[in-house]
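Example 3.2
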Amino acid sequence: MDSVTLADIAAQSGVSEATVSRVLNAKPGVSEATRTRVLAALDVLGYERPVRLRRRSAGLIGLVVPELTNPIFPAFAQVIEQTLAGHGYTPLLCAKQPGGASEDELVEQLEESGACGIVFLSGLHADTAADPARYAELAARGVPFVLVNGYNERVSAPFVSPDDHMAATMAVRHLADLGHERIGLAVGPVRYVPSRRKTEGFLAAAGPGADRFVRHTLFSVEGGHAAAAELIEAGCTGIVCGSDMMALGVIRAARERGLDVPGGLSVVGYDDSPLIPFTDPPLTTVRQPVQAMASAAVGALLEEIRGNPVPHTEYVFQPELVVRGSTARLSR
């Protein structure tokens, strides 16, 4: 294995090249935690483990995601899969597609494949219109699972969520500090828990009458574009978005109307998904703590699998406002 490869693995695992070499050559003097990180880095980077370091999979774990076009979902998937591989489990990514298998059908396929646990990311548990009984039935069949991004009090399981209420509050306060008084919210369908929480946080921070500047639409570029058309018409000088993809749609709508971003309209996204720092302008956004949330979700699931159930409650993680070039002080 050449020095470039060693350097790649060292960078991915956060250890020295010498430590990587010791692990690959099965030398003593390396902690189990460090060894696990190096082997996980091998898996993530697509390198085959040396034969002497291979081990049988501890089991198959499914990761069910709503889609892969929004880069925040692949970002979560990468961290979850890396963490699972580091513990010896084989991750299986299942993405729902329009006209393809439903969440229930994907779960059935995972059970038939002998999956010993499932991570649901932004699944039907986040949809207040969906019947939560499916999760009680899954638990009754003895399949451990954990639910990320969404909450339902009728489901007994570990939940891992960002503080969506605080995320919207931080975004509004940031725009208000820049002098914006008429601030809009472009967010997803009201039936989704994250949308409701973002809306509640927005209204609490924006004050009386702010509900007239809320637009529920699709969590997509097209959805943000449609919402922005109405919010700009209503005189909003700043718009908080429910996702980075929606924010890109808002920027597109602003430019179609001859508005500069941020000179004529300030825009705040949500997620801080990969490549967002490289948009034009670089997007101010609220960062989901993907690493911490994914690690917590895997940790909770593995405890459930090992027969050590964690409290069936919601674990809420604090987001972070990342200020870049899409927001600016309001010019009078």
